[in-house]
Write a structure and sequence with these properties.
Strands 1, 2, 3, 4, 6, 8, 10 and 11 form an eight-stranded mixed sheet that branches. By secondary structure, the chain is an alpha/beta fold. The termini are far apart. The chain is built from seven helices and eleven strands. The structure holds 2-(butanoylamino)-2-deoxy-beta-D-glucopyranose. The site of 2-(butanoylamino)-2-deoxy-beta-D-glucopyranose (BGN) has 10 residues, from helix 6 and helix 7. Keywords: Glycoprotein, Glycosyltransferase, Manganese, Membrane, Metal-binding, Signal-anchor, Transferase, Transmembrane, Transmembrane helix.
Length: 285
């Protein structure tokens, strides 16, 4: 009898769902700067957050509505990565989200393939947990407004509408780069990103075409909310073949993407601030 009593009183109260709009948001975000640009130092600065293994967090006092994966394609940007993590973890925590951050690093030193790294992130993340939606996120973009909510969108959402580098103006209406959010189902429906964009540019425009070709709509928050600061880094060399790939892309939506993805995972680690994937993409060329 005694045993049963203790068990009952120790049982956790079922949590109520988190509110649609998290409390305590105030429309600003102060940019945090790492004291030193090392992951150890950033982890130290974030110790108050009590993050779980692999850069995972979930609200303590309510039940999150969705499981969210943040997928960040990465190579050789440690300084940006430190600032990104230092700012994103408190930001996402404040929004009462259940999320995990994945850093997907390209191992080989061939041309960078941002889109393919994001496909890999999607694929590998789903092996670990049944995430509901995905935010594909450049490492150099830091949100400036905490009301820019990273919750699952009904339609594909372009998040980085107003970036300081572009004077907070959308460069063109169909832009779908920087930070986007998509449900797992929609990402699968469009067969993910193309794997054929090696080097800078065009892969995001190809994704915009995929979204439209499947009768989905790109949605956006208002520019005063969807504001971002861009961190500085060396400029990438644009891919001269991007026009050609983009214009012929439509023919390949069904055959080029998640369903023909080939790569080798060199490393998969649950680190304190993120889940780390190191992948070799060279098999494909
Ligand atoms: C565009 C790039 C995008 C990039 C944006 C913003 C191309 C394709 C040729 C039509 N598109 O010009 O990939 O995100 O600029 O920098 O280069």
């Amino acid at each position: 009898y005694n045993n049963i009593q203790t068990k009952q009183t120790n049982e956790k109260q079922p949590l109520t769902p988190c509110p649609q709009t998290p409390p305590d948001l105030n429309g600003t975000m102060r940019l945090l700067v790492p004291a030193q640009e090392t992951l150890e130092e950033v982890a130290q600065q974030l110790s108050w957050l009590r993050l779980l293994e692999g850069g995972h967090q979930e609200p303590l006092d309510c039940r999150a509505r969705y499981k969210i994966a943040i997928i960040v394609p990465y190579r050789d940007r440690l300084s940006n990565l430190c600032t990104f993590l230092l700012n994103m973890h408190p930001f996402l925590t404040k929004q009462q989200l259940d999320y995990s951050i994945f850093i997907v690093e390209q191992f080989d030193d061939g041309l960078f393939n941002r889109a393919m790294l994001m496909n890999v992130g999607f694929n590998e993340a789903l092996k670990l947990r049944d995430f509901d939606c995905f935010f594909f996120h450049d490492v150099d973009l830091i949100p400036e407004n905490d009301r820019n909510i990273y919750s699952c969108p009904d339609q594909p959402r372009h998040m980085s509408v107003a970036i300081d580098k572009f004077n907070y103006r959308l460069p063109y209406v169909d832009l779908f780069g920087g930070v986007i959010g998509m449900s797992r189902n929609h990402f699968q429906l469009v067969n993910g990103f193309s794997n054929m964009f090696w080097g800078w540019g065009g892969e995001d425009d190809d994704m915009a075409s995929r979204v439209k070709a499947h009768d989905l709509n790109i949605t956006r928050y208002t520019p005063n909310v969807a504001r971002y600061h861009m961190l500085t880094h060396a400029k990438q060399k644009a891919n001269p073949k991007r026009y050609e790939k983009l214009y012929s892309g439509r023919k390949r939506f069904k055959t080029d993407g998640l369903n023909n993805l080939e790569y080798r995972v060199k490393s998969l680690k649950q680190l304190p601030l993120f889940t780390y994937l190191l992948v070799d993409l060279t098999g494909r060329r």
